[in-house]
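Run folding on both entries below.
>entry_1
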Amino acid sequence: IRLADRVSTVSATYAEEICRPSDTSTGFIGGEGLERLLAEARDGGRLVGILNGCEYDRPKARRPGWMRLLAMLEAQLHDWQQRDPDNEAHMLARQRISAFPKRRPLHLLTSIGRLVAQKASLLLLDAEKGASPLQALSETLGRSSVIVILGSGEPLFEKRMLEVAHRCPNVLFLNGYSELLSDPLYAAGDLFLMPSSFEPCGISQMLAMRNGNPCLAHATGGLNDTISHLKTGFLFGGGSYQEKITQLQQVFDEAFDLFRKEPKTWEQIRNRARKQRFTWRKSVDAYYRDLYGIS
């Protein structure tokens, strides 16, 4: 960092965040001890933040029907159970799918990502006590709606997610990762949950938006740079953990009310999200210009 002519990271907001010290009491991850050097690089014009890109030249994903989506989820769970027959999460998920109504739920929320502290803390805080934000969202939605979580990761967070799924009959926890399921879930959802504690750039929000699936996300890093509140999605902030969780729930309520009461406005947000373009061409041009000084 001291000797480099340029230092790059993957979003403008994250480039600012890493110039501040981390604060584990609030979940803020900054420079992790390198903040002074990074701030010197920033002040000297040597630190740049350039967003990653997303592919847009592929055929548009069709929104799958509810029964087709359930059949795909069931098939993947069958494969996972063949390899891991004692996995409690797989057994619960298959039971849950069998119990779901055959009509599409009133609202379908989706989330895809690694179950680690960075991605899941704000959803699963105090899950073992039965008071997690995810459970609160589930109760707000009610049984006529469904939340589908696809992810695996640290055993602690897998355990917490399973505890929430046991308590909430409208939460479907798919404990694994599957390329075959991700595209249909990005396309099928009404709202994508991405409350990462920190996020250098993020790709899931771009993939969801590409499919017209607005995101509810923490206003940090690349999420802050790719989502515009009430225009292409929904952002929450806050200083302490409690402030973030309170704002997460408040913004969710705002989005939920908008979905129910102002369908035209919701459709406009969906369309604006779908039309966003974070292309690799833009990223490449920025690398030439900002990193290498080539116009």
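>entry_2
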Amino acid sequence: MQRQWWILLFGLIATGVGLLADDAPEVCRRPNLVIILTDDQRYDTLHAAGNRLIQTPNLDRLAKEGVTFRNSFVTTPICCVSRASLLTGQYERRHGIRDFSTPLASNQWAQTYPALLRAAGYWTGFIGKFGVGDAKAIAARASDFDFWRGRPGQAGEWFIEPGDPDQRHATARMGNEALEFLDQVPAGQPFCLSISFNAPHARDGKAREFQPDRRDEAVYADVRIPMPASATEADFLRLPDFVRRSEARRRWERRFATEAMSQATLRDYYRLITGIDREVGRLMERLEETGQSRSTVMVFTSDNGWFAGEHGLADKWFIYEESIRVPLIVWDPRLPRRCRGRTRDEMVLNLDVAPTLLGLAGVAVPDRMQGRSLEPLLCGRAPRDWRREFFFEHHFGPGLIPPSEGVRTERWSYVRWLPPNPPVEELYDLRRDPLQRVNRASRPEQSRRLETLRARSHDWAETLQ
């Protein structure tokens, strides 16, 4: 009888320990890191984000098993600036990248997440569209990585490479290169792989700007993708006249001017995202096959959003929500089960990616980084001093894209258009008007709020350098 009692007690203890171990994070001081960056992917183009038409099963798995950030933003919605911010954890005002030809200086590069992780002993790789600097400067980056498949410009003239007899789509080619990277990582060495897909970005001006993988041609063929509620002529006419004359309208004319054009554009755009999802699945499968999935953290996001015809516009560049909001998922299998599958509502930025990666790796975050590590949000409450607003800026191409600055708070969106255009202001109450259809800047009852946000924007601009 006494022996049976001890057996029962031992079983209960073992069961309890097993439950605790199952809920506890796996001990891994230096996890492998994979950063998946897409190009021009808006925040709501994942099935897991509530889009019931798009097919993204592998990204949905990341969301189900990881942490999704519902309010994730970029501070400047154009690829060269946003990618510099991702690398440096800094606003444009500090890193100074405002065009497609200027590279990061050597002292700046030394403080980026790839350089710091490599110095800390990580095996580093880069695949796809680099986006910061001209072709010569980007080619010189090869020596800054252990594995380099980075490309200048849009990472290829076409999504399908004409010189490839197998006609592999660029997305699939980058997926193959990711598997090649995993095959080359030295045994026992932690790695950091940055995969920068050039989809679903358009090939501007081509006959078919969003050309998908041939395997995806039939996907969405019989689906009508609804147009956004604010994609109307009335919404377009509410914009300042210089915005109506901008490149964003010219591109709208190529993509959304008719119902047939709109459906062709949106179906191909969705197909490109489904193609990315397939490569994410292949990568996850390889990590599982090699036993590395339990010690690998994956971060999925995009460099900026994208207008699907909202306000009568196409592309990005402006402070409107569709342009600045992006998907962000952190998949960390070491998290306790109670923390997985959660959605966080805190305001997070592309500036936070670099300090998050460094924090996960146990590498000191440089003082010059202006983002914050997302680690406290992955399985706990936000710090009391977590941000409640951020500064928006866009200065590239004033002849094509009206420059602007502003502030996005948890409730309000404020923007001031800059020279050479008149200093027009816009103010939107996102709680009452999430589609930003009613500019309240001229309303007397908002004069004090307008003055406050105008001053906040000025203060941000003065202090961020």
